[in-house]
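Tokens as discussed.
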């Protein structure tokens, strides 16, 4: 009997874990919010640590200045008493003239901390911009995530906000500042532990979120620094010439495709005007059955289990490409060729993207088509077109995510 209850309890635990893992599938906004929260906490913790050290150093400097002033005053008093005892006390005016000029007092320690925070205006602007983005994402997290996960993300956000608040608040002493920062950091660690029990952020999702939101954060940083982002002005003549050649190549390709299209239309119209025989009727592939997401749910889950395995190579190659793209010391073309090979193999597979839901199938094929063009342009060294294709892929994969959301799946 005892063994029976033990097995039953173990089965319930495994069922609960499986249920939790199943609910974690298909989240798109939640990983983005968690990534922004974690990186914002890292910024604020770094500012807080440096601010505390600055405050402590300023207090030590202030203390040394007070001690030096007290020592100088004591030495002057001893000299005056010695002169009095020797009956050589000079007139007050002469004594005043001979007294040394007091050393300038250092600025108050609190003022040093305020000056440090002003010097961090650019990073604090990034913190504020990330906060605005998180405020917009929070309601979407509540909509898509299970209640336990949504609550854990909200708790993490509140804890992160407390860390950031403590990092930019000037207190009366460095000790008080350190106590506030330590308390906020402990609260964040506790919230992080709570989130880890119900949600795991994958490296691929984190990398995608960083790439998606970095332009917004960089824009805020540049605006705070008062230096507009002007990539062309920062280019060397060789870089500008290369970008110009790439742009011209893209424009010529578009013009060629447009001309081919217009020629094809003209020939088709000419055939119609000459009374040519009508074109043979093409067979139309039967459309997939129309059904509700609830009815398609089992088929979609069965298909997605196969699709996820076949798309794993593409996700890994995309993650490596995004990492290489953000590392100026790493060559991207070998990674791009790997991404092109993986994407082509997926698109050539007749069943990988054949989702039971027609809308999901179209959206996924469009997204991976854009990714294939991105990899092809990157492999050829066309940076401008690669950037353009990356934006197109992001929009297409977001559209694919929306079509899979009713089934709690993600691309």
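Sequence:
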């Amino acid at each position: 009997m005892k063994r029976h209850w033990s097995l039953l309890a173990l089965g319930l635990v495994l069922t609960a874990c499986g249920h939790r893992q199943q609910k974690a599938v298909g989240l798109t906004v939640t990983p983005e919010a968690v990534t922004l929260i974690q990186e914002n906490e890292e910024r604020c913790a770094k500012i807080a640590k440096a601010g505390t050290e600055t405050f402590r150093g300023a207090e030590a400097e202030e203390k040394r200045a007070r001690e030096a002033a007290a020592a100088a005053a004591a030495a002057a008093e001893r000299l005056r008493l010695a002169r009095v005892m020797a009956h050589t006390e000079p007139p007050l005016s002469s004594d005043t003239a001979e007294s040394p000029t007091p050393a300038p007092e250092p600025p108050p320690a609190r003022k040093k901390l305020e000056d440090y925070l002003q010097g961090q205006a650019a990073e604090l602007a990034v913190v504020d911009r990330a906060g605005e983005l998180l405020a917009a994402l929070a309601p979407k997290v509540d909509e898509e995530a299970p209640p336990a996960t949504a609550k854990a993300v909200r708790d993490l956000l509140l804890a992160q906000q407390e860390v950031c608040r403590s990092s930019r608040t000037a207190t009366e002493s460095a000790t008080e500042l350190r106590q506030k920062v330590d308390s906020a950091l402990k609260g964040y660690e506790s919230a992080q532990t709570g989130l880890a029990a119900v949600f795991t952020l994958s490296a691929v999702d984190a990398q995608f979120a960083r790439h998606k939101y970095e332009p917004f954060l960089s824009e805020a940083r540049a605006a705070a620094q008062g230096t507009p982002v002007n990539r062309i002005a920062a280019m060397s003549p060789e870089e500008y010439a290369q970008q110009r050649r790439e742009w011209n190549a893209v424009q010529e390709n578009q013009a060629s495709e447009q001309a081919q299209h217009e020629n094809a239309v003209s020939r088709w119209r000419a055939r119609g005007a000459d009374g040519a025989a009508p074109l043979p009727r093409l067979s139309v592939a039967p459309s997939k059955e129309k059904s509700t997401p609830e009815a398609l749910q089992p088929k979609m889950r069965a298909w997605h289990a196969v699709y996820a395995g076949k798309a794993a190579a593409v996700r890994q190659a995309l993650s490596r490409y995004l990492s290489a793209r953000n590392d100026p010391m790493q060559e991207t073309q070998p990674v791009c060729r790997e991404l092109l090979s993986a994407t082509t193999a997926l698109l050539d597979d007749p069943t990988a993207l054949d989702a039971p839901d027609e809308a999901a199938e179209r959206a996924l094929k469009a997204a991976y088509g854009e990714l294939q063009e991105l990899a092809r342009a990157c492999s050829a060294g066309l940076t401008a077109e690669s950037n353009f294709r990356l934006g197109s892929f992001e929009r297409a994969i977001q559209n694919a995510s929306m079509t899979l959301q009713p089934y709690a799946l993600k691309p």
